[in-house]
């Protein structure tokens, strides 16, 4: 079997996006009253404080810090479905009794440590193969996945606080890199999860501030393509770009943006893809 080539990504571009989303989260959380930290998010079992604890935990893990020992068997919790979820919950429970101010201080400390470590990485380290949530790939790809994760959680927190992203805020680098990461999985969604037939040409037409077209061609295997070589798509899916990211992340749609999903061409295939858009573990 031919080994999959590693994703090569520009380090300054990816780090600019990652640091930008960390800054956005900091601004969102600064001065938040304690009841805001306790606001429920769209994620089962997690309030705002739990989401931030999860981010702290992941960045701590990447710094080589072991998760704290939980006070219960976290695998027994209904919303914990795998080992990653169990590790997340260790941090969530550890930090649940702290004040929002204390959690924010922890968040700032670990993200500052990560900024320093990432900025000092050599190109060889950045491009080296490493385990990621998407399988073995470059460390740079892992950091783009970190942007996606943090950016999705920024949107979760915004929904919890009824402070949705403005069009201008959605136009930033973290949003675009998050959408790049989602787009990279659409071959898997169309071919593996939705079982689109051979010969299918699927076009996602995203509207709003995150407007772009994502095309997947199924020719033996489903893969992302720039165009269909002059042919028309066999199935089309048109919706707001932010709502696309919410569905891809297994979240409910954002109430602040248009929720229409328009299907064209082979509507059965298109509907099956929409139903299986969630690829997040």
TrEMBL record:
InterPro entries referenced in this protein's UniProt entry, alphabetically: DinB/YfiT-like, Maleyloyr_isom, MDMPI_C-term_domain, MDMPI_metal-binding
Domain of life: Bacteria
Transmembrane segments: none
Domain Mycothiol-dependent maleylpyruvate isomerase metal-binding: 20-158
Residue ranges occupied by any MDMPI C-terminal domain in the UniProt entry: 177-272
GO molecular function annotation: metal ion binding
Protein name: Mycothiol-dependent maleylpyruvate isomerase metal-binding domain-containing protein
């Amino acid at each position: 079997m031919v080994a999959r080539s590693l994703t090569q990504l520009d380090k300054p571009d990816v780090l600019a996006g990652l640091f930008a989303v960390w800054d956005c989260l900091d601004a969102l959380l600064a001065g938040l009253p304690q009841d805001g930290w306790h606001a429920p998010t769209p994620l089962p079992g997690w309030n705002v404080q739990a989401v931030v604890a999860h981010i702290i935990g992941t960045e701590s893990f990447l710094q080589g810090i072991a998760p704290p020992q939980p006070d219960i068997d976290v695998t027994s919790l209904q919303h914990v479905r795998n080992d990653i979820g169990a590790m997340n919950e260790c941090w969530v429970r550890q930090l649940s009794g702290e004040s929002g101010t204390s959690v924010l201080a922890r968040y700032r400390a670990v993200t500052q440590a990560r900024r320093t470590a990432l900025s000092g990485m050599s190109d060889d380290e950045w491009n080296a193969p490493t385990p990621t949530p998407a399988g073995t790939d470059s460390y740079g790809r892992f950091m783009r996945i970190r942007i996606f994760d943090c950016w999705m959680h920024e949107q979760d927190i915004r929904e919890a606080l009824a402070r949705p992203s403005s069009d201008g805020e959605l136009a930033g680098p973290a949003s675009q890199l998050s959408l790049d990461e989602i787009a990279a999985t659409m071959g898997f969604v169309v071919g593996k999860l939705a079982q689109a037939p051979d010969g299918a040409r699927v076009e996602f037409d995203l509207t709003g501030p995150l407007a772009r077209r994502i095309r997947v061609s199924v020719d033996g295997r489903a893969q992302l393509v720039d165009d269909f070589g002059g042919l028309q798509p066999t199935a089309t899916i048109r919706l707001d770009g932010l709502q696309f990211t919410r569905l891809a992340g297994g979240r409910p749609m954002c109430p602040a943006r248009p929720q229409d999903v328009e299907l064209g061409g082979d509507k059965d295939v298109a509907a099956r893809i929409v139903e299986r858009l969630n690829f997040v573990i």
